[in-house]
Amino acid sequence: MQKILRYGLSFLLVAGVVSCKKFLDVNNNPNSPTTAPINGLLLRATNQTAINVFNVGNITSNYVQYLSSPNAASPSDTYDQIDASGTWTSLYDAMTDIYDMEKQANAISAPQYAGVAKVLMAMNLSLLHNVWGGAPFSEAFSGETVTPKFDDANTLFQRSLSLLDEAIALLGQPASGSTIPTGATSPDLIHQGKTPNWIKTAWALKARLLNQLSKTQQYNPTAILDALSKAYTSNSDDAFVTTFDVRNPWNSVAVANAGQILQGWLSEHFVISMRDTLYGIPDPRLPLIGTITQYGDYRGTRNGKGRVGTGINREESALSTTGFYSSQNSPVYIVSYDEMKFIEAEVAFRNNDKPRAYNAYLDGIRANMNKMAVAAGARDIYITDPDISVGASNLTLENIFREKWKALFLSPVTWDDARRFDYAYTGFQLPLNAVQSTPIRRLVYPNVEISRNGANVPEVGSVIDRLWWDQ
Questions:
Q1: Any idea which fold 2-70+80-217+438-466 has?
Q2: pLDDT tens digits for 396-421?
Q3: What are phi and psi of 163, to 5 degrees?
């Protein structure tokens, strides 16, 4: 595997050097780099982290039924095994860059770069862990072996948490050595070199990971609430990327679909959840997400069923090329304030503090609608509807998980939530032509790893086998 990673890295480093010319005074020939400049690594790592959120979300969005394949019995819908080699490789490409970035940061005594590297590593490692469980990590980047061992999934999870703790400590140190350039031309595509924002993001990611333990004996509401108190306080704190080679990757999906390369179709379950069909109230965010059909309304595609017509006559809704999440310049959100409010709602609910849970639940909805620029009148009509403003005493986990699922559209974290909630959303059905009798819980290991490191790849019995935190 290491040969693949280093080969991929060599290409990426050249790209990083070329990309960074506007940020750095680089005189070396970019076609024969020796050591990539640290800002080139940072640029590439922040960009690739957002791409990896997209890559994973492009898989998981079918499992949580945001999206549906236009093709009947598609493996992406029906819980059949898929080969996610591209996503696996992309995660390791990013983590290799991040490993080298931290190594350089330590060599030049630059704690800000090192701290950011650790947050980025935790972001990518948690994506890897949540999809596959165990994976190569401790031996994956040093170059000492081309067949690295697989680290236990729980070990990887705990390492993600320790990376965040280490990052918070580093970022809390007084500025010294080289520091990340700030402003519009910063190579930091997430927070533009703002250390306080990175500290908040580390705490936000820690709150997410700690909340993921809701099915385990390790679940600690006090620790989660403490992390939340040091995380985001408004939408302006969100971690996201808007700079890509050509366009937002979800826009690429929408543009391809508009050009009749069919993809990015909205799931029937998502559409009826956002219309007044399932919950009794139309959600004003749907027009900011999907396309209108030839019938003048929104119609989803049942997962596993495939398209009802030719697929080119606008008979079903898809991601809009001008949508909030899928326009050319839309952000790819990595961690967000509205997510933190829903985490607060969940942990307060589990901690028997229903008034706090209820206020956080409503705040999460409001924050998401404000971010999406929903008209204030439409926002307030939705929030004050009795099906939404249920009152603290009537609040349920289903209310919280449902509204979080709506707010975090396309985010891979919602698959973590679906598994923690055992897919118990109102109206959720198995896809037609499902090859499993229960919802999917993990992916099998990709062919790229089996072909290069097969002796170390653990056997996976089924995609419905539960990961350690999902028992």
A1: 1.25.40
A2: 999 999 999 999 999 999 999 999 99
A3: -60, -40
